[in-house]
Amino acid sequence: MAFCIKNLMPLVTCSSVDSDHMLRAAELADKSAGYTAPHPNAGCVIARGSKVVAEGFLYGQGTRAAEIKAVEQAKELAKGSTAYVNLEPGDCHGDDSSVNALIQAGVSKVVVGLRHPLKHFRGKAIKALRDARIEVNVLGEDLQNRNIQEALRACQLVNAPLLYREACRIPFSVLKYAMTLDGKIAASTGHAAWVSSKTSRKRVFEARSRSDAIVVGGNTVRRDNPRLTTRQERGHIPARIVMSRSLKLPEDANLWDVSAGHTIVVTQHGANRTFQQRLARKGVEVVEFDMLTPKAVMEYCYDRGFLYVLWECGGSLSAPAIESAVIHKVIAFIAPKIIGGVTAPGPVGDLGMVEMTQALNLSDVSFEQIGPDMLISGYLHPIPDLMPIIPAMEASAPELMLSASDGPNIISFYKAWNAYGAFSNFSPHPIKMISKRGDYVTWKSVEHYYQAQKFEGVQDFLAQECIERIKSAESPEEAARIGRTLERQRPELVRDKWESVKIDVMYRALKCKFSMYPHLSSLLVSTAGSILVEASPHDLFWGGGQEGEGLNHLGRLLMRIRAELLEDDSGSSRINLSTWSSIV
């Protein structure tokens, strides 16, 4: 009998059925790509033998877990079944709802593709399931044979951004370019429309929609005046990032139109302050760095919660990005054209290499014909293998660590999948708020309610339509996008005195959330003595900012609610819904 040396447990033979179901789970996990911002991708297949009885996937940040969706779809067929999950369950409900759903449904076995790479989730669900006497097999640990290698690779690929982010402490970064057969990205005049075919450009739009942000340099803005949009009517809109040390950029550029998407200009500290002010008046965000480098920008994007960044820059920026090891993957569209030109630019500038033996080799290279073009992609840095730092099978999950200074403990939260993600207004906790008609309305999250309140009471068809769209939005991210877009494009539709009432609106929604869910109020009370900081580096109103310069109103409201909960030792401050009509 074969044994797993790490855990001294017998290895289980993996069948082709197991492999097929896991491949399907990984395929499901990728279904929301392009519709929502990058997030931990989770899919779940519930099967009885070779027959699939239910499926589910995580749609976006702050939406219902894949396991919960699958269990609800399976109903009584879940009892005695096997659940296949590409990623160890780890949700931000604050109550282990994914694991509980599988346990309560009566599944007999769970096959896990990857242990969760985030430390506050890693190993926790696996241990909980085993403690509930459910058999758990993990690919590469308990299951090791040729049948499973393809499935394991699929699980790694679908969550590559998460694995890179956790291992490298920067977002997964992909360099994309299109070039002619003789290696040129433009003619010697700079003209570049178009190197690749329309079919290839459509693939680029898809790649953009999968990313958190798209990076270009000042040269690209001056030469091409790009829009960097996804060309889709609805769906995720990535941020556009422009890197420029001097800020010698055009007064008018497509990227300064923030109605098409958020634009961030990153520059050297003190550069062209007059132009910075002009950009700010247009709604462009300007971030200054003491030393503007690709690594510094990616570290900033990491702090901002980004998982996936697409680089669409020219050779003068791609070279230092590659040299600083922030580019993990390359995708190159090669068109069957020859343009020539000694001064015509190539996709990568000088890397200081003088011999072919110094060339950087890509791994896991793939080839695909896209219309008349050839797409070649590969990894400059292999997908990180986090197995060596994953605890043994029976090890307990790591404790949540608080970041602390010399003073009080500081607990930071931001993304819904963070350790304290349940505090986020994007967390998947529906709330019931009383309407002006006197009836209770269910909102899918605090963010859904908050965005809709911007237009409450406005007698305009667009405003009322926007409220309905926000209410039906599948994810908090989509609700925020709908509300912010109309607020930006039609500011006259925002309700009177919104700036003066929005803190109270958020307070009432948060108060309802922590009153409806006892486990959340217990979690909040458990942080007593700590300072709560919404760690958004860019939202200086609700968040704490990059260096603590933000007002942190969300953290302040949570500490206010925590104080109110602590005032009543009996817990009577957990208000039931019938009392809300007097305060909402």
TrEMBL record:
SUPFAM superfamilies: Cytidine deaminase-like, Dihydrofolate reductase-like, YbiA-like. One of its GO terms (biological process) is riboflavin biosynthetic process. Pathway: Cofactor biosynthesis; riboflavin biosynthesis; 5-amino-6-(D-ribitylamino)uracil from GTP: step 3/4. It is an enzyme of class 1 (oxidoreductase). This is 5-amino-6-(5-phosphoribosylamino)uracil reductase. Its EC number is 1.1.1.193. Gene3D superfamilies: Cytidine Deaminase, domain 2, Dihydrofolate Reductase, subunit A, YbiA-like. It comes from the Eukaryota. It holds the Pfam family NADAR. It comes from Callitropsis nootkatensis (Alaska yellow cedar). Residues 17-137 form the CMP/dCMP-type deaminase domain. Keywords: Multifunctional enzyme, NADP, Oxidoreductase. One of its GO terms (molecular function) is NADP binding.
